[in-house]
Amino acid sequence: MSGEMAIAAALLLPLLICAGIWLAGRVPDLREGVTLLGAGALFVIAIIIAGHVSAGTPAELSLGEAVPGLEFAFKAEPLGALFALVASGLWIVNSFYSIGYMRGNRERNQTRFYMCFAIALFGAMGVALSANLFTLFVFYEILTLSTYPLVAHKGDANAQRGARIYLMTLLGTSIGFLLVAVIWTGALAGSLDFVPGGLLQQAEGLTPVVASALLLLFAFGVGKAALMPFHFWLPNAMVAPTPVSALLHAVAVVKAGVFTILKVAIYVFGEEILNATASREFILAVACFTIIVASLIAMTKDNLKARLAYSTVAQLAYVTCGAMLADPAGFMGGSLQIAAHAVGKITLFMCAGAIYVATGLTNISDMRGLGKRMPLVFIAFFIASLSIIGIPPLAGDWPKYELMQGAADADLDYVPIVLIVSSLLNIAYLLPIPILALMPPPGSPEPAPYKRPGGAPLLTVAAPCFTAALCFIMFFTVGPISEFLEPATGERIPSAYMTTGGAP
Amino acid sequence: MIELISSLVPADIAAHAPALLVVAPMFLAPIAAFMPNGRLAWLLSIIATGVSLIMAIVLLAQVRSIEGGAVLSYAMGGWAPDAGIEFRIDALNSMVLLLVSVIGFLAAIFSWPSVVAEVRDAKRAMFYAAYLVCFTGLCGVASTGDAFNLFVFLEISSIATYVLVALGASRDRRALPAAANYLLMGTIGASFFVVGVGFLYAATGTLNMAELAVRLQDMQGNKAVLAGYAFIFVGLGIKAAMFPLHQWLPNAYAYSPSFVTMFLAATATKVAIYALVRFLFTVFGLEFAFEGSTLIWILMPMGIAAMIACSFQAVFQTDVRRTLAYSSVAQVGYMLLGISIATTAGVSAGMFHLVNHALIKGALFMALAGMVLSYQGTSLNDLKGLGRSAPWTMTAFAIGAVSLIGVPLTAGFQSKFALVNALFEHGWWWAVAVVMFSSLLAVVYMGRILEAVFFRAPSNPNKRRKEAPLLILIPLWILAIANIWVGVQGGFVAGLAEDAAMSLFIGDVS
Question: Residue A275: is its pLDDT beyond 70?
C-alpha cells in the first residue's frame, strides 16, 4: 500500500466504521464485530504507515485547500506514526474491554457510544498525521466535539455538568489561545506547515518577546495537555464510563494534547529557537509544579478514578516537561512517555472499570482484601503501577531515564529532583491500592460481595492483563522504538548511552 | 456552474441584466398586490426573486470574465451618466447582489408555511408585494452608481421593511412599537444620508458616484465635503446597525414575522454596510476617508465595542430571537473591524464575514421560523428538548450555531481566521484578543441554546411538536450545507470577497 493510500485509509476507515456501527446498530453482535474488525484493520494501516516512515519513503496526502493558504494536508513522521500506532493498537484492546464493560453494566445508547468512539479515533488519526497546524487544529476540535457525548453518556445532572466543563475548557482554551497562536504563527512565518528544524526559522522579525508570547499561547492553548491551571477538566471528565476514561483520557484525547505540544516544540519552534525563548523555562517550571502538585492531590483522593485522573495530569506534564527541555533527549523522553504512559494508564483504568462492573465499588478504602476475589485484576494493576512509577523492567522506566538525561544535558538541576520526588509520590498513592487489596492487614473486614453474579466479565479482566504484559514487552523493545523516533527528536549527545533493549 | 447558467441566458437579455435585476421584482410587486390570493402572490415572488438571481449570476459571470474584475456600466433608460442614472457593477456589487438574490430567492421559497401561520389571509398578497418592494430596494442600493438614486432605493427598501415588521402585530402586538421605533430611526438615518449627499452635490455639482470620486480628490479640507462625509457616515451607520446606533434592531428582529426577521437579518444590514464601504473607499477614497479625517477612528472602536457589549447583551437574553439579534450587532462589529483595517486583507476578511454571516443568520432564523410553526414562542424555555422532536430542523440550527461560534470546518471559522490573520498582519494584536474574547462569548450564548435544545427535557412534554415542513427544511438545509461547504471549500466565496476588496483598492475612479 502506498503511503498516500495508507493515510487516506487511516482517515476514511474510522468514518466507515462509524457508518457500519450505525447500520448494524440493531444487532449488537454484528455491531461489535464491525468495531473489532475495523479497529484491527486500522492498526494494520498504522503499522503500514510506520513502515513507510521507518523506510524513509514519503507518505503524504493533500485533500485540497479550504481557502487559499489553508490546506488539508497530511504527512506521516515518526512522532505521529507512533501516536497513531498507540491509539489504534489500544483501541483494539479497549474495544474488547468496552464490550465486556458496557454489556456487563447494561449501559444504554450503546450504538451512539461506539459511533462516537469511532469518530474520536478519526480525530486522533487526523491529529497524528496532520502536516500543518491548520489541519491539526481542525482535528483537535473534532476530537473535542466527538468525545463530548461520550463524557455526558450517563445523562444525569452530574454527567452533564462534567461534560459541560470538559467542553467549555477545551473549546475555550483552543479558541482563545491555540487558534490565536496558530494564526499568529501563520502571519509570522507565512506558512503553517510543520518543518523539521522549526517553522519559525523562516519567520522574519521574530523577536524573543513575540516568541515567548507565542509559546505561552501554545502551551496553555492546548488544554488537552492538562497543564495547570487548565487541568480541572480531566478529573471532571471522569464521570464518563470507564472505557471512555481508559482510551480517551489515558490515550487519545490527552495524548493528542501532549503530542501537539511536542509537535509544536519540535516542528514549529525547533530546538534552537526554543532554547532562545524565555518563556520556555517558565513553562518548564509550570510543568514541574503540575507534576508535584497533581501527585499530591492524587494522594488525597479516595475515589479510584479521581486518583487516576490526577495521576494522569501529573504524568502528562512529563511530556510537556520533555518538550520544554528542548534537547533531543528531552524530546525522546516525552515521546516515549506518550507510549509508555498510555499502556500503563489504560491498564489502571481498565482495572478500575473491572472492579466497578463486578462490585460497584469506586472508593479505594472499600477495596481492601478484594484481591482475593479478583487476583488477576489487582496483579495487572500492580504491574501497571510499577510501570508508572518507573521501575525496570517495565516500560515506564525509559521515559524517566531519558528525561533525566535531557535535564542533565540542559544543565537544569531541579528537574531530576522533581522527577525523583514524583516517583516517590507515585509509590505512595498507587502501590497501596493493589497491596492492600492482595494482602489485607489482619483484622480488616471482608469486602462486599459481588454486585454482579459471576464477577467481572472475562473480557474486562483479560484486557488489562494483556496491556500489563505490554508494559513488560515495551521495556525490551525500546531500542527499535527510539531508533524509529530518532529522526524526529534529533541525535542525542552521547549517542551510545542507551544500548538496544538492555540496561542503560 | 456560473458560466453554464449565464451562457443559457440570451445575449440580448444579458446585456440588460443590471436593469432587469432590479426591474423584475419592482414591476412584479404591484401585480402581486392585486393577486386574488396569497398563494399566487407567493409564486409570483418566487419568480421575481428567481429572475433576479439569474441576473445576478449573469452579472457575476460578466464581471469575472476579465482577470481582476470588469466594471460594468449601464446607463438607465439610455441616458448617459451624469445626466442619467448609471448602474455600475464591479466585483463588490456583484458579490452583494448575488448574496441578496440568493437569500431573497431562498427566503421566498421558505416563506409560505411561515406566512400562512403568522399573517392573516387577506393581507398575504400585500405582504408579498411589500416583500418584493423591499427586495427591489436592496438590489437597487447594491447596483446603482448614483448617490441620490442610492438614497431612493434605500428608502424604498426601508419603507417596505417598516410595513413588513408591523405585520408581525397579528402574532405579537409589540411589533407595532418596534416598527414605529424602526421607522423613526430609519428615517433619521435616511435623512442624514440625503443631507450628506446634498452637501456633496453642493460642493461638486454631481451625483454620479464615480464622478464624485474624481472631483472630491481635489477637495481635501473642504468644510462642506467634511460635513457631507459626517452626515453620510452616521446615516449609513444607523442603517447598518453600527454600535451604538443599533437600538432599533433587536426589537425589530424579535417581533416581526419570522420570515421577515430571517430576510432582514441576512440582507438588510449587509446592504447598508456595502453602501458604507462604497462611500468610504470609492467615493471619498482611501486617503480622504482614512487619513484626511479623524472620523474613521470611530469605526474601529465602535466595531470593537459592538463585539464586546452586544455579545454580553446576547448572553443575558431569554428570548432566542433577541439573542440572535444582539449577536447580529456584534457580528456587524467584526465586519466594521475588518473594514477599518483598510488593507486589502482586512476589507476582504470583512466582506468574507459579511457573506458568511448572511449564511449563518439565514440558517439560524429559518430554523427558528420552523420551530415557531409547531410551537409558539421563542424563549429558551420553549426550545428545551426540541433536538429529539425535530432533529432535522435543529441539526441545521446547530450547524448554523457552530458556524457562528467559529468552529473549524464551518464558514464562520474561515472568515474569523481571515480577520485575525489580517489583524496580525496589520499589527493590531490587541484586537485579536478582543475577537477571541467575543468568540468565547459566542460559545456561551450559543452553547446555552444548544444545550437547551439537545440536552434538556422539554418543559411541557404534552405539547405537540414536530419537524418543520419540507418547504422550510429544504432552503434551511441549503444554507446549512453552504455553511459547511464554505468551511471546507471556501475558495469560491473567499475569492469573491478578495476580488471585491481588490476592486476597492484599485482606485478605479475613471
Answer: yes
Give how far A1 is from chain B: nearest CA, Å. 27
Partner residue opposite B408 with nearest CB, options A141, A180, A183: A141
A112 touches chain B (CB under 8 A): no
Sign of CA dihedral B110, B116, B118, B119: positive
Contact B429 A168 (CB under 8 A): no
**In the predicted model, what is the mean pLDDT of residues B138-161?**
92
**Among B335, B317, B305, B483, CA closest to B402:** B483
* Residues whose CB falls within 8 Å of the CB of residue B247, separated by 6 or more in sequence, listed in order: B181, B185
Count other Cβ atoms within 10 Å, centred on residue B315.
17
What pTM was computed for the model? 0.85
Please tell me the distance from the alpha carbon of residue B185 to that of residue B239, in angstroms, as a whole number.
8
SS (H, E, C) B470-491: HHHHHHHHHHHHHHHHHHHCCH
Query: Rounded to a whole number, what is the distance in Å from the CA of B487 to chain A's nearest CA?
Result: 7
Question: Is residue B489 in some structural domain?
Answer: yes
Q: Does A65 touch chain B (CB under 8 A)?
A: yes
Rounded distance, CA B302 to CA B242, Å?
A: 7
**Residues A163 and A152: beta-carbon distance below 8 Å:** yes
Identify the domain containing residue B458 by its residue range.
294-510
- Whether the pLDDT of residue B101 is over 90: the answer is yes
Query: What is the count of structural domains for chain B?
Result: 1
Element at B385 (helix H, strand E): none
| pLDDT (tens digit per residue) in A412-459 | 888 888 888 998 998 988 888 888 888 887 777 777 777 777 777 778
B439, A184: Cβ pair inside 8 Å?
no
| B259 within a domain of the structure (yes/no) | no
pLDDT in tens, A456-501: 777 888 888 888 888 888 888 888 888 788 777 777 765 445 444 4
B16 falls within a domain: no
CB-nearest to A67 from B405, B455, B494 is B494
Q: What's the pLDDT score for residue A496?
A: 44
Residues of B with CB below 8 A from A68's CB? 491, 494-495
Q: Is residue B96 part of a domain?
A: no
